[in-house]
Amino acid sequence: MSSHLSADHPAAQPPGPGSVEALISQTRRLRGDVDAVRRDSQDDATDPRGRWQRALYDLALHQLTDLDAHLAQLRDGPAPAPRAGSLLSRVGSAEWNLLTDEAEWSGELFRILGRDPASVPLSLDELPSLVLTEDRPKLTAMVTDCLVDARPIDGEFRVVRPDGTVRTVHMMGEPVLDADGSTASMWAVLRDVSELRRSQRAVSETRDSLQHPPPPPWHGLLSFPEEGRPGLDLAAAHLPSPSATGLRPGHGGWYDACPLGTDGETLLTVGDFGRPESEGHGPAVLIGAVRGLALAGTRPERLRERLAELLRDTALPPVRGAVHCGYRPDTRALTWAHDACPAPLLFRGGAGHELSGQAETTLEAGDLLLLHTGALEPAAVEHLLSLAPRLTGAHSAQDGVRIVTRELGELLGEFPGRADGCLLLARVTR
Questions:
Q1: pLDDT at 376 over 70
Q2: pLDDT bracket for residue 245 (50, 70, 90)
Q3: How far apart (Å, rounded) are the C-alpha atoms in residues 406 and 138?
């Protein structure tokens, strides 16, 4: 294969064997250190944070292994036939001559694309036939920019091998210029990055599960009005207990927003039972009862008493604590009542405080109201109040919930014995 370097781009002098060997030694020491830390870490495979940490360790080891193999290739030179499945068998090169329309592929590229090394390399016009249909325009645009505007190629696309498997390929290339400065050919290195991207997706997915806890099981039975209520932008989250694992997780908390009467007022409620409800039906039954009472016009201060009467005749455990708020969008009046449950938190103008003592106040546009269950430790409540500048600067209730769950995910890890919790955030829109 001819050199890919033009007269305008002289090759840099390669590092001496000693310096490359030193880099290899450093990389292998670092890889060993990372692997040792990973083995010593006491993460829990059932805990979202533990899965996220494990995925990050795996990704770091994968990248260090790749770096080690690349440096070894620099030291030893290209191997005549890398073993199947090794890193070096996942890096190939090619050159397409625009004057003769000939193509030259390395043996590794044939293996990456799943083609017979004895077959004829595909031309640039034929190459898209190996690419997934939805990725073909991207490949065509990269090649066109390289040949017409002399732009380097640096992008990814997915190829379909003859056996039907799909691999993700990262392609880097540049035009090769002749003596007149015209593009004579295009040279490229292609790397199979399927495993690397799989590791990165694992990190992303576990991070998302950590920052955005899944909804509780009753969420599908009684939908939460995520589109909001009159005058309010709403968002909520369930914070699973670290000890809730296996087939019997604890789901003792609930949150809800529903009409209060028939004049546009909204009831906001959050609470939990005295003991976990493993199947999740208890909160659904209670939310249904609360909605019925609210539609009948039962005021927040009477809900505790009425719910207690209803629960006496059921198999459900007693309510340990709940907070109920009524909000009238026409006057922005907020009323609340709570018993053995933390008071609502109000955030305004970069500051936050608990709504305790008086049972009625007037809200303003942009105010954030945060209701949460007693499962949150006092330290967590103090930390939430310290987030006031960030929360009042949030553009939506969902943004506020992301901030809270991300912060609490780190803080509540220090309380492994806590129960599961729920929180509801309402943002006044007008």
A1: no
A2: very low
A3: 35
- Amino acid (1-letter code) at residue 8: D
Q: What pLDDT is attached to residue 3?
A: 39
Q: How much is the average pLDDT of 6-34? A: 69
* Domain harbouring 174, CATH code: 3.30.450.20
Structure tokens at 228: 């909001």
Q: Is 41 helix (H, G, I), strand (E, B) or coil?
A: coil
Domain boundary (206, 233, 253) is at: 206
Q: Is 344 helix (H, G, I), strand (E, B) or coil?
A: coil
Domain that includes residue 186, residue range? 17-206
How many Cα atoms occupy the beta-carbon half-sphere of 101 within 13 Å? 2
Task: 139-145: list long-range contacts, CB under 8 Å, 24+ apart.
Answer: 139/171, 142/171, 143/186
**Does residue 164 sit in the same domain as residue 264?**
no
Check if the beta carbon of residue 390 is closer than 8 Å to that of residue 405: no
- Whether residue 5 lies inside any domain: the answer is no
Count of CB atoms situated within 10 Å of the CB of 143: 20
Residue type, 361: T
Last residue of a domain, one of 188, 206, 224: 206
Q: What pLDDT score does 74 carry?
A: 78
Which amino acid is it at 51?
R
Q: Across the chain, which distance is largest between two alpha carbons, in Å? A: 93
Pairing of strands 183-192, 345-348: unpaired
Structure tokens at 67: 């770096």
Same domain for 128 and 108, yes or no, is yes
| CA angle at 390 for the pair 388 and 391, rounded to the nearest 5° | 65
* pTM exceeds 0.85: no
Reported residue count of the chain is 430
Q: What is the number of structural domains in the chain? A: 2
Find the CATH number of the domain harbouring 387.
3.60.40.10
Structure tokens at 372: 């949460």
Same domain assignment for residues 230 and 201 = no
Residue 277 to residue 249: CA distance in whole angstroms: 8
Q: What is the identity of the amino acid at 215?
A: P
